[in-house]
Structure formats: structure tokens, C-alpha cells
């Protein structure tokens, strides 16, 4: 294992957007939106948790570079079955902020769960995903653009022969 050396890469503007969904009972969502959760303002706490988590990502994701964040924006919006969380992270640095955006979305979702678990332990955190990244050598990637473009047929997988026992692989 090693941390990738990014010292020779130029500093460029980089942006990443990640989302997560929380599925919950309609009554739970309504309590959150009405501000009727015993622990307080769930949406404000989740936004703050997401921002704080983005800033601390290298503390718990091994080999993740500590980078100076220019901005972190976390929003929560009601959707049919619960809430959607969107985290947008920006930097001007030598490496991207995908991990920071994903971490922010996860931390915001965990905070909602923590604050509402007394009324709905069946909540589900799902669909944590990167939706967009821009900047750096690889340029821009968008989930929507990838989904709408045709993919080339996959090459057949070759079966590699090995003398090691299956359990040791």
C-alpha cells in the first residue's frame, strides 16, 4: 500500500458531487420537515455533519490526501420515500475531492438516522454515489452523461490459471 505521489501534478480547480438517499416512513419525513424531532433541527445538523466530515475525510479514509477545501455545500431535499442528500465539494489542489463529497453525503445520512432512530429504526441509507467530478487530468465525468451514452461490448473475461489454492487467492 502507498499514498499516491501527487507532488508533480498542477493545482487545478476540482469539483465533486455525491448523493445519498434515506428511505423512511412518510411520518418520519414529515416530522423532519416540520421540525418536530426531539433532538432538534435534523436538516441543519445533517448539513453541518456533512461539512465537518468532508473536512476530516483523510482522518478515516486510509491513504486519502489531506487537501484544502475551497467550499462544501450539503443540501437535503424531500423525495417520495424520504430524503435525498447532495454534497458538492470544491478545491484548487493536486488531487480530486470525490472522497470528500462521498464522505459528506454519508455523514449527513448517518446524522439523519441518528437523530430519527427513536421514531423509525427501519430507515435505509442507500444509493450513495458519485454523480459528477471535474478537473484534473481525467477531466469531467457525469453519471447522467455516462448513463445516456452507449457502452462498448465488454471483452470476454479470460480465466487465469493459478496453482494457488482457491482460499489463498
Automatic annotation (TrEMBL):
Pathway: Cofactor biosynthesis; molybdopterin biosynthesis. The keyword Lyase applies. It comes from the Bacteria. It catalyses: (8S)-3',8-cyclo-7,8-dihydroguanosine 5'-triphosphate = cyclic pyranopterin phosphate + diphosphate. Residues 147-156 have a biased composition (Low complexity). It comes from Corallococcus caeni. Residues 133-146 have a biased composition (Basic and acidic residues). CDD domains: MoaC_PE. Residues 157-169 have a biased composition (Basic residues). Residues 133-169 are annotated as: Disordered. This is cyclic pyranopterin monophosphate synthase. Keywords: Lyase, Molybdenum cofactor biosynthesis. Its EC number is 4.6.1.17. It is an enzyme of class 4 (lyase). Residues 3-136 form the Molybdopterin cofactor biosynthesis C (MoaC) domain. Catalyzes the conversion of (8S)-3',8-cyclo-7,8-dihydroguanosine 5'-triphosphate to cyclic pyranopterin monophosphate (cPMP).
Amino acid at each position: 500500500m502507498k499514498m499516491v505521489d501527487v507532488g508533480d501534478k498542477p493545482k487545478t480547480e476540482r469539483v465533486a458531487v455525491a448523493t445519498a438517499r434515506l428511505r423512511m416512513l412518510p411520518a418520519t419525513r414529515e416530522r423532519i420537515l416540520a421540525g418536530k424531532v426531539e433532538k432538534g433541527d435534523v436538516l441543519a445538523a445533517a448539513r453541518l455533519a456533512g461539512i465537518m466530515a468532508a473536512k476530516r475525510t483523510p482522518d478515516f479514509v486510509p491513504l486519502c490526501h489531506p487537501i484544502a477545501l475551497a467550499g462544501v455545500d450539503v443540501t437535503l431535499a424531500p423525495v417520495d420515500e424520504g430524503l435525498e442528500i447532495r454534497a458538492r465539494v470544491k478545491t484548487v489542489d493536486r488531487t480530486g475531492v470525490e472522497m470528500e463529497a462521498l464522505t459528506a453525503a454519508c455523514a449527513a445520512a448517518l446524522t439523519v438516522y441518528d437523530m430519527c432512530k427513536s421514531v423509525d429504526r427501519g430507515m435505509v441509507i442507500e444509493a450513495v454515489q458519485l454523480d459528477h467530478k471535474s478537473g484534473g487530468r481525467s477531466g469531467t465525468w457525469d453519471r447522467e452523461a455516462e448513463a445516456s451514452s452507449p457502452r462498448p461490448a465488454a471483452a470476454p473475461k479470460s480465466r487465469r490459471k493459478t496453482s494457488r489454492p482457491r482460499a489463498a487467492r
